[in-house]
Amino acid sequence: MAGAAASPTPPTAIARPPRERISSWPLADRMFYGLAWLSGIGLCVIALWIVVFMLIKGIAYLRPALLWTRPAAGSIHQTQAGGILDPVEGTLLVTAVGTVIAAPLGIGVAVWLVEYGRPRALARAVDSGIEMLAGVPSIVLALFGLLFFSQGVLTFVSQPAASGALGQSFLACGAVMSLIALPLIFASTREGLEQVPPRLREASFALGKTRATTSRYVLLPAIKPSIAAGTVLGMGRIIGDTAIVTLLLGGAAQLTEPVGHAPVWSVLRGTGSTLTSYIYYNSPSGEGNAHEKAYAASFVLLLMVLGLNAIVTRLTRDSLDGPRGAGSRIRSMVGRFTPVRDMSGTAGRF
Amino acid sequence: MDPLMPPPIRRIVLDREPTVAPPREPPSGANGSASAGAALAQRIARQPVANTRERMSIEGVWLAYGDNWVVRDVSLPVRQGEVLALIGASGSGKTTLLRSLNRLTEITPGAARAGRIALDGTDIHELEVNYLRRRVSMVFQQPNPFPMSIYDNVAYSLAEQNPERGRRRRRRSPELGQAVEDALRRAGLLDEVAGDLDRSALRLSGGQQQRLCIARALAAKPQVLLLDEPCSALDPISTATIEELIISLRESVAVVIVTHNLQQAFRVADHVAFMHLGELVEYGPSEQVFDRPREQRTRDYVSGAFG
Q1: Is the pLDDT of residue A347 over 60?
Q2: Rounded distance, CA B272 to CA B269, Å?
Q3: Is A322 left (phi over 0), alpha (psi -120 to 50) or beta?
Q4: A74 and A47, same structural domain?
Q5: Whole domain around residue A227: which residue ranges?
Q6: Exposed end of chain A (fewer CB within 10 Å): N or C?
């Protein structure tokens, strides 16, 4: 009871446990530790290299005018190749079509599987079906899509051709693109639903609400951040895909004339290009041979994908900025946050 | 599951209020324990309700999960105008019995039932399940408001199925607003939240959340209100508020409360049913069960010998 009157002062010398010395480790452990460090740093260096290299190359050739100049069709010479307006528009169109198809499907299937899931056998089949879809290479999907949309009865999606339908259009391309975005949206919605605590469902059932009402008004609003994250990931996947564009959108650099007279539909029945296919054609291995334009387009594409990644990070990160931060509602409900299973595929696939 | 994710946050559940346990007399044979109840706590002052009427009747009910019978041949009346408390040790089947009253047991796979439960004379299994659950609504152990505004929480429950969206104040109908306020007033929450019904329900305190859940349950205009240990996650002051609320509600709805807390049962209940291992051991007026239990097992339980 020495300093009863004085407030206790913290001790000045705090004994810390001695640091573990790596030199005391067995040799094998030390080697493994070193390898782990090396590979980690190596990956960082490679990722940074790619980004910085493309940024430098891209900025060097990027002129604002490129963004609103249409590419010159058929021109081989670099200075006459025009801008990248059409590929940017094409990317936006394909992404929009793909997302509009994939999001409701993915969310719907996830709700059905988690909330209903009967009969069991069908649920299992749907589950493995989507898993399989996620594993199919996009070029295979593209080939299937091309054959599918070339059937005469599906001319309304593209345009007439000698043997039935052309099979190439923004609609056809977007529809097949939705297949590569769907597994991501599905997985993320499903994980969100599975992490909603059962008491939230019970509360709704106890008020005499059906499963449908519960899903629509309680569960889906509660997992909005998961759904949004999945959707944005899916969009990233669509933006980055090249194989499907090459086969299903045709090689024309410019958007073609609208097909028919329906307001939006006619544009979507046309063909065109996206940033990915534009880069492919203008790269050193393509036919266009306008490297500078390819670099500039890569820069724009990289910006788009990085932007989407930033959105995903923002949607899924733990809110450190107080309870009003994005997605914190669900976090306080659910306790832990929504994981996005598969981050691969956001950064462009070639 | 991603191993990098932090573990789920759980509320710390207080099983019993931190009240000082009163000295108990040892359970000693036949005439020993005088008035365990008197030693426990004061009952909340109340006016007896003049005309009680039977709302639900439980007749020879058996309930099982899989092959395991958790409720065995229970018969009880549930009356409007009084609070019925189900007490008993963990695993005695109280909660299962409570959940069977609005057929919430059915969402558990493998649940089975025998016997008859009637609401105003009609077998509840002949009623449409969602209709039944609006007539017999439930409040859970954990406050579980929906992750939306206070207003939307109540409005959700007011609608039969699809609620009117109250996001935009301008588009709300005044009748709905009135109904929401009525429900909040009945649950004794309106004064505390009146200024800001658009606030997220998750930003309320635990006691307020639980009263919001009661408001939500009341908004459906039920005939029977089921409470499954409604205070076990709350502090003593919130508990007192909710207990008074329960007493005031019993005039307009039949109240059934499951509780682990004997003091609470004594404070709020008019009738008490003591269950043990799925059987109904004793049912009677609260004073009788606590002060003059007929069964030895009841005497042991209310005097703290087990449970």
Answers
A1: no
A2: 6
A3: left
A4: no
A5: 65-334
A6: N
Instruction: Give chain B's domains with CATH numbers.
Output: 51-148+217-302 (3.40.50.300)
Q: Which of B138, B139, B144, B221 to mutate to test the interface with A (most CBs of A within 10 A)?
A: B144
Domain shared by A53 and A171, yes or no: no
Radius of gyration of chain A, Cα coordinates, nearest whole angstrom: 26
The tokens describing B227, both together, are 């409470």
pLDDT of amino acid B16: 45
Q: Quick one: A103 and A40 in the same domain?
A: no
Same domain assignment for residues A52 and A110: no
DSSP string, A33-88: HHHHHHHHHHHHHHHHHHHHHHHHHHHHH--HHHHHSPBPTT--SGGGSB-SHHHH
List alpha helices for chain A, DSSP H. 27-61, 64-68, 85-111, 120-135, 138-149, 170-195, 198-206, 211-214, 220-222, 224-240, 243-248, 265-269, 275-282, 291-316, 328-334
Residues of B in contact with A197 (CB under 8 A): 144
Q: Does B6 sit within 8 Å of A207, measured CB to CB?
A: no
Give A318's pLDDT tier (boundaries 50, 70, 90): very low
Residue B153 has pLDDT above 50, yes or no: yes
A218 contacts B156? CB cut-off 8 A: yes
Question: pLDDT tens digits, residue range A29-50?
Answer: 999 999 999 999 999 999 999 8
Name the helix (H) or strand (E) containing B139: strand B136-139
B42 band by pLDDT with thresholds 50, 70 and 90: low
Do A221 and A244 belong to one domain?
Answer: yes
- Give tens-digit pLDDT for A260-316: 777 788 888 888 888 888 888 888 777 766 778 888 888 889 888 888 888 888 877
- pLDDT digits 0-9 by tens, A174-204: 999 999 999 999 999 999 999 999 889 999 9
d(CA B301, CA A85): 81
Which chain A residue's Cα is nearest to B7? Answer: A336
Among A208, A218, A221, the residue with its CB nearest the CB of B134 is: A208
Number of domains making up chain A:
2
CB contact under 8 A, B2 and A217: no
